[in-house]
Design goal:
The complex is a heterodimer of chains A (about 160) and B (about 220). Helix content of chain A is about 45%, strand content about 15%. Chain A is built from eight helices and three strands; from the N terminus they run H-H-H-H-H-E-E-E-H-H-H. With about 220 residues, chain B is mainly alpha-helical. In chain B, strands 2-1-3 form a three-stranded antiparallel β-sheet. In chain B, helix 2 runs antiparallel to helix 4 and helix 6 packs antiparallel against helix 9. The model of chain B has no long low-confidence stretch (mean pLDDT about 95). Classes of the chains: A alpha+beta (about 160), B mainly alpha (about 220). At the A-B interface, loops of A face helix 2 of B.
């Protein structure tokens, strides 16, 4: 299994690596993005999580989506309607604005120049043992463990 | 049952409702050809009940709903609507097609080796059964994310091919190949029993492959 240090993995580096092939012809992307995706995932959850975003993040979300409720609906829809394996994301895009969407498999928003600040794994392995086929129930329950402090930290870093 | 008012309007409304309901029930969940526990220890009864009774059933229900939306969009000449519903039809229609094949591809009396014309075709196109099995296992295990491994038949060249499709993309519309044998490697197909060890599941599933069904699918198209 290929291992890479997290430190120094720039956006360009990730995009380039996801387009590389190993000598035996296998795509690297599933492994390269797999690691940063999950590394982000563990940090944006907390047993003390849940509640609402911090004021700065809330303001950014409201600016992009109209309201927190609309943003949540958009996020839940993205997570629910990702057919097959993938992730739902809240990102800071190239203009500094919030976007909410899903990607397939282990594709990362970094591949399109966006900075993820929150991600939800909707591969079946993420929820099947607890929720079986009931992905919507998993998504709803998951909002109770979001670590909004970490999301705020990532947002501030993305905004520079 | 007569409408209370007996008016033409009520009759028309009931007739349209009945037609819509008939359309909604166009696709139905096929029954498993064996008990849910029949494929144990290869595939647990718990997985089979969820996989057939929940996942496949959802594809059927959502396919019916999507086709209703399509019908409505076609009737109102809503081209955007027609285009917008294609993704749901492909996903749920593919899911229904794929799983309908899958339940018959497996059998509690399966396993062993194919015989006759099927075995001859496998040996002709792959060299040996072992080489074929190794290729199909490797390609199926290697699918990124969700998808299916397939043994397909290429009618124009009269040959067998091993390939894969992502998600629920159905083999025939996607590649032109006729599906003979499919292996589902969506995590719901194995996770409760095998966890992340997909290779173990794919290696074990050969013990329940219904070669009679695979052979019939080939002879039906030759």
């Amino acid at each position: 299994m290929l291992t890479l240090p997290l430190k120094g993995l720039t956006k360009t580096c990730c995009v380039t690596l996801t387009r590389c092939r190993k000598p035996n012809g296998k795509l690297l992307s599933i492994m390269v993005a797999d690691m940063p995706n999950h590394s982000l995932f563990w940090t944006i959850m907390s047993p003390n999580g849940g509640g609402n975003p911090t004021p700065e993040v809330a303001a950014a979300i409201e600016s992009a989506c109209g309201s927190l409720e609309a943003a949540k609906e958009q996020f839940v829809t993205a997570a629910t309607t990702r057919f097959g394996s993938g992730w739902a994301w809240v990102v800071v895009d190239e203009t500094g604005s919030i976007q909410i969407y899903s990607t397939a498999n282990q594709d990362s928003p970094i591949m399109q120049g966006h900075t993820p600040i929150l991600g939800l794994d909707v591969w079946e392995h993420a929820y099947y043992l607890n929720y079986q086929n009931l992905r919507p129930a998993y998504i709803e329950a998951w909002t109770n463990v979001i670590n909004w402090e970490e999301v705020a930290r990532r947002y501030a870093a993305a905004k520079g | 049952m007569l409408a209370r008012s007996g008016s033409v309007f009520s009759w028309t409304r009931r007739a349209l409702g009945a037609a819509a309901k008939t359309f909604r029930q166009q696709h139905t969940l096929p029954e498993l050809p064996y008990a849910a526990t029949a494929l144990e220890p290869v595939i647990s009864g718990e997985i089979m009940e969820l996989h057939h009774g929940k996942h496949h059933a959802t594809y059927v229900n959502n396919l019916n709903a999507a086709k209703e939306q399509l019908q409505s969009a076609l009737q109102s000449k809503d081209e955007n609507g027609v285009i917008a519903i294609q993704k749901a039809i492909k996903f749920n229609g593919g899911g229904h097609i794929n799983h309908s094949i899958f339940w018959n591809n497996l059998s509690p009396n399966g396993g062993g080796l194919p015989i006759g014309a099927l075995l001859e075709a496998i040996e002709r196109d792959f060299g040996s059964f072992d080489i074929f099995r190794a290729e199909m296992t490797a390609k199926t295990v290697g699918i990124q994310g969700s998808g299916w491994g397939w043994l397909g038949y290429e009618k124009g060249k009269n040959r067998l091919v091993v390939t894969t499709c992502p998600n629920q993309d159905p083999l025939q519309p996607t590649t032109g190949l006729i599906p003979l044998l499919g292996i589902d490697v969506w995590e719901h197909a194995y996770y409760l029993q095998y966890k992340n060890v997909r290779p173990e599941y794919v290696n074990k599933i050969w013990d329940v492959v219904n070669w009679d069904d695979v052979a019939k699918r080939l002879s039906d198209v030759q």
